[in-house]
Amino acid sequence: MTMIRTELLEIIKNGENSGVEFKRDDVTNIKIAKELVALSNFSGGLLLLGVEDDGTVSGITREGLEEWVMTTCRDKIRPAVIPFFEVIKDVEPEKDIAVIKVSRGMDVHTLWHDNKNLYYIRVGSQSREPSPEELARLFQQRGAVRSELTPIAGAKFLDLDIRRLKDYFIRVRGQLELVPADDDEEGWKTLLTNTEFMGEDSINVAAILLFGRQPQRFLPQASINAAAYPGKEKDYAAHERATIKGPLTALFSSGGGDRPQIVETGLIEQAIEFVARNTGKTARINAGGQREDIPTYPPEVIREAIVNAVIHRDYRLSGSDIELTIYEDRIEIISPGRLHNGITPERMRAGCRASRNQLIRDTMSDYKYMDNSGLGIPRKIIPLMKRNNGTDPSLAESDERFTVTLWRGKPGQGESAVPFLEGDRVKHVLFGLGTVTTDPTASYGSSEDYRSVVFKGWVVTVIFDKPDGIERKLMDSHLTLVERP
Predict the structure, then answer these.
(1) Parent domain of 449
(2) 457 lies in a domain?
(3) What is the tens place of the pLDDT at every residue in 191-243?
(4) What does pLDDT average to over the chain?
(5) How much is the pTM?
(6) Measured between alpha carbons, how far is 397 from 106 in angstroms, rounded to an integer?
(7) pLDDT class of 447 with cuts at 50, 70, 90
(8) How many CA atoms lie within 13 A of 135 on its CB side?
């Protein structure tokens, strides 16, 4: 990163902020280390030496400045950081400025002074010591603390739903031999301790969220605040408002058959039902003259987005529920907490994976609420929205929240919704070359666990050149585009 003079002057003109700090040349190494620690513990940033607080360029005169800065970063910061350092000459006549850049730390950094570690974070243009809650979140963001394993004061074994526990260990995990009798509390405590749902005789956050009788009694922030508005902004005249509560998982029963039946919905099912009530479907007539209903938003996308929100949110942020908001032109799902362990929206799109609440994620995967790939955004949410209505979901991180926005678009009419068009020349591995006779139609079916309707692909009608010119209906995944007239 080599900065040019005009870029530097623009930064100085804009003043100090969350990622920019000004310092005089005569600053002490303690103050330099403090600012670099705070910037690194936030999102990284720039420290400009030779600039006054008001933006006046005073310049640098210290001999051996680069060596002094590097020594400070090695001796006064734990773990040590290696910053980018450069001097910009003649920013003003005969006045140079030193630019020190640090990246977002993979670890939590401290200032080492008087034989103790001092923590600092960046809050606006100020560097200050964090509160206990802020420090805990900082460690969690860096992957050093698993808040899902935090014991819940006052929670007892009886606060867990024994029916859900038995369903999980017997039906989901297939471990009937490990399951104690209903009244064997010590046996259950041993099992829950061995599977990380308990620690030191205390029920933890993950257990209450997944299997609690009333999770919101202990974790009020574990609800979903849902609202549906008629327009593009929030309004008092909402179509529907709801505070969705309950454990994350549904309660299932075999119902006398092979397929498990939902006896009681969980948080996920209630949220999905709220979206279904307030979005509806778009009807069109397919090539066969039949009415075809296309969901405004693909059910699998809604499911994936809601599951991601409850799994990856920061449960340390009290007073902050997940927000599920339906507007005329979009759905917004806001999850409390910054992205975890260096993940950015761009890296999520590329398939980079990191889980804030690994035990919750693994358990929800056991229930088949999600798969094990951890690639729901690049493999499901983005491609299914594009195929459904041609829109690209928005991913945004702001302050202490992460927002997924799903745009309404025009269901079934997106640019990338239909893979083939009438008249296209296509190729099949067995039937050879052929011509598409009508525009393809969308195919929907049951999900793997039979709990939702999911998009299965496109049905394409093709007349093949050989051997008999028969018209066949095939899934788009079996065809390759050869030529488009």
Answers:
(1) 425-483
(2) yes
(3) 999 999 998 778 999 999 999 999 999 999 999 999 999 999 998 889 999 99
(4) 87
(5) 0.64
(6) 18
(7) low
(8) 11
H or E element: which one contains 198? strand 198-199
Euclidean distance between CA atoms 470 and 155, whole angstroms: 67
User: Do 272 and 318 belong to one domain?
Assistant: yes
The model's pLDDT over 85-115, given as tens digits with 9 standing for 90+, comes to: 999 999 999 999 999 999 888 789 999 999 8
**Structure-token pair, residue 6:** 């005009």
- Token look-up 């998982």 returns 249
Q: What's CA 191's distance to the chain center, in Å? A: 31
Which contacts qualify for 111-114: CB closer than 8 Å, 24 or more apart? Answer: 111/30, 111/33, 111/34, 111/37, 111/76, 111/77, 111/78, 112/33, 112/75, 112/76, 112/77, 112/78, 113/30, 113/33, 113/76
So what's the pLDDT on residue 13? 94
Give the position of tokens 């969308």.
442
- Among 373, 407, 441, residue at a domain's last position: 407
Q: Is there a contact between 254 and 261 (Cβ–Cβ < 8 Å)?
A: yes
Residue 414 lies in a domain: no
* Tokens read off for 390: 């041609």
Looking at the structure of the chain, the number of domains it has is: 4
